[in-house]
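Quick note —
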Amino acid sequence: MTESVRRDTSPEQRVTEWDGDHARTGAADGEMLGVDPAELGDEDLIREMRSLHRTRLDTLRHATDSALANHLRRTADLETEYLTRHPGREVDPHRLRDA
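Predicted structure written out below.
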């Protein structure tokens, strides 16, 4: 991304590998990068999400476009799987705002 970054667009809109609702894999043979989230156990799924969230800011600020696209896709895939498994997840009352 050598052109100036517009502040009114999301990272997904700026990353050239982003394709609609998901990023292209970037793998040479067209295979998905990483283990399918549906195949991960709960502990592995949480571990993978923690790793992605821990590296999020550095990836957003300093990674190549293709690395950011892969990070966005992987995060979406893992979080979607988590929400599928835990649709009634526990909500911390301290995180709620007054209406």
